[in-house]
Design brief:
- By secondary structure, the protein is of the alpha+beta class.
- It has a single domain, classed as tRNA-splicing ligase RtcB (Alpha-Beta Complex), CATH 3.90.1860.
- Helix content is 32%, strand content 25%.
- Strands 7, 8, 9, 11, 15, 16, 18 and 19 form an 8-stranded mixed sheet that branches. Strands 1-2-3-4-5-13-12 form a 7-stranded mixed sheet, sandwiched between helices. The chain has a two-stranded antiparallel sheet with strand order 6-10.
- Helix 5 crosses helix 10 and helix 7 runs antiparallel to helix 9.
Length: 479
């Protein structure tokens, strides 16, 4: 295990493991964290996993983890790595099993005092309308041709189908549709698992949350985003469900077979990879794109359901507008500066969010002067944050944290947290909730997560993002 003695301190929030720490490292490994957080980060295998990532073929600059880092499959969650396009490696472990797990934030025209008397009813109606739970299917139905069209076009197809508003896809990363999505590399089993799961939330840490804007830190940017104090917003966190999980499962196995054929020495079987330009690499990337499109379509359908509930509870004249939707488990082909020159790269983000600064053409035109919205959920009993991408994200291949990050495993949380105690705690904070599973609910207790305030202090302190607004939960729906 790596210790603090192995780290070089760059500044208050940046630590580095030099390339010469291990002979097979191709680049240094960088940790963004406060000294206070570092001791806890070093308790699991996440930093050792990061060092393994530094051995990937074609990796450039440095590999890195955000302050919400914790141990994952192959890659640490909160990890970012960029490899040369097209000859560098691509690794399913660097994207994760829930491809395009991401967050969508909806703005209402309601303020807290107006909405408060209806909050319990709203949470119950949302719980009844949005299917959740392990393996749960939903009421949204398409035939095989329609499903294929969704995998190719993502949220765009869903909006055209009538489950959205005309401008919904403007404020979505990649407009909710990756054009390189290719169904040729998608297994029949993945399609069978996914076709009935559109419009469903799933379980684990996925949720629909109703929040109130608790505090505004940057009024100028907040005004551009449409955020002001006491405004009610809705947050959606879910991904590609069983469809994406099956694609990851299929390609982890395929890349292990690839490694055997090529005679590669694997530092970790979970880190299996292949050259992006190989048939296996191209097939995975196309299938990953299909899963990303599934996830954007999924969040769009759930948005449609939430709007229906909103009208039912508050009246037909009450609207929900999409602020932004961003992925945090994905690989993208992007251009970044490396050693003073612009280079095309395969950027792996696993539990990390894009954080492009002002002026980037990747940012929707209405936000381009202030930077991309970065949505960082905390936990259901604490706070979430809206940040704005900043110029300093050039240090991180345009990346930021994606949440608070787990502080204890799900098993530990079940041992440490009693449902009745958690229920009392949330009620005392004025948080209404509905859940399918008591066990799954305690796994997501605030105690199981890091202090989101400390995570935000790191990423804003480094200059990766700017703090715009804090959100306080008042209603939670979980699987």
């Amino acid at each position: 295990m790596i210790s603090k003695a192995n780290l070089k301190r760059i500044n208050d929030f940046t630590w580095e493991i030099p390339k010469n720490y291990r002979s097979d490292m191709n680049v240094p490994a960088r940790i963004y964290a406060s000294e206070k957080m570092l001791d806890d980060i070093l308790k699991d295998r996440s930093v050792d996993q990061l060092v393994n990532v530094a051995t990937l073929e074609g990796v450039v600059g440095h590999v890195l983890v955000m302050p919400d880092v914790h141990e994952g499959y192959g890659f640490p969650i909160g990890g970012v790595a960029a490899t040369l396009y097209p000859e560098g490696a691509i690794s399913p472990g660097g994207i994760g099993y829930d491809i395009n797990c991401g967050v969508r934030l909806l703005l209402s025209d309601l303020y807290f005092e107006e909405a408060k008397p209806f909050m319990e009813k709203l949470v119950r109606e949302l719980f009844d309308r949005i299917p959740s739970g392990v393996g749960r299917g939903g009421s949204f139905r398409v035939d095989k041709d329609g499903f294929s069209a969704i995998l190719k076009k993502g949220a765009k197809w869903v909006v055209e189908y009538g489950y959205g508003e005309e401008n919904d896809t403007i404020n979505v990363e990649s407009h909710g549709s990756l054009e390189f999505a290719d169904l040729d590399g998608v297994s029949q089993k993945a399609k069978e698992r996914g076709i009935n799961q559109l419009g469903t939330l799933g379980a684990g840490n996925h949720f629909v949350e109703v929040d109130v804007v608790d505090e505004v830190f940057d009024p100028r940017i907040a005004k551009v985003f449409g955020l002001d104090e006491e405004r009610i917003v809705a947050l959606i966190h879910t991904g590609s469900r069983g469809f994406g999980h099956q694609i990851a499962t299929d390609y982890v196995r395929e890349m292990l077979e690839y490694s055997v054929r090529k005679g590669q020495r694997l530092v970790d079987r979970e880190l299996a990879s292949c050259s992006f330009s190989s048939p296996e690499g191209r097939n995975y990337f196309g299938a990953m794109g299909a899963a990303a499109n599934f996830a954007w379509a999924n969040r769009q359908i759930i948005t449609h359901y939430i709007r229906g509930v909103w009208k039912k509870v508050f009246g037909d004249n009450k609207k929900l507008k999409l602020l932004y939707d961003v992925a945090h488990n994905i690989a993208k082909i992007e251009t970044h500066e490396v050693d003073g020159r612009l280079v095309r790269l395969i950027v792996h983000r696993k539990g990390a969010t894009r954080s492009f600064g002002p002026g980037s053409t990747e940012v929707p035109g209405n936000y381009r002067t202030v930077g991309q919205p970065v949505i960082v959920p905390g936990s259901m009993g604490t706070s979430s944050y809206v940040l704005a991408g900043a110029e300093g994200s050039r240090l991180t291949f345009g990346s930021c944290c994606h949440g608070a990050g787990r502080a204890m495993s799900r098993q530990e949380a079940r041992r440490e947290v009693a449902f009745t105690v958690l229920k009392r705690e949330l009620i005392s904070k004025g948080v209404y909730f509905a859940t399918k599973s008591r066990g799954g609910f305690v796994e997501e207790a605030p105690l199981a997560y890091k202090n989101v305030e400390e995570v935000i202090d790191v990423v804003t302190g480094v200059g990766i993002a700017r703090k715009v607004a804090r959100l306080r939960p008042v209603g939670v729906v979980k699987g």
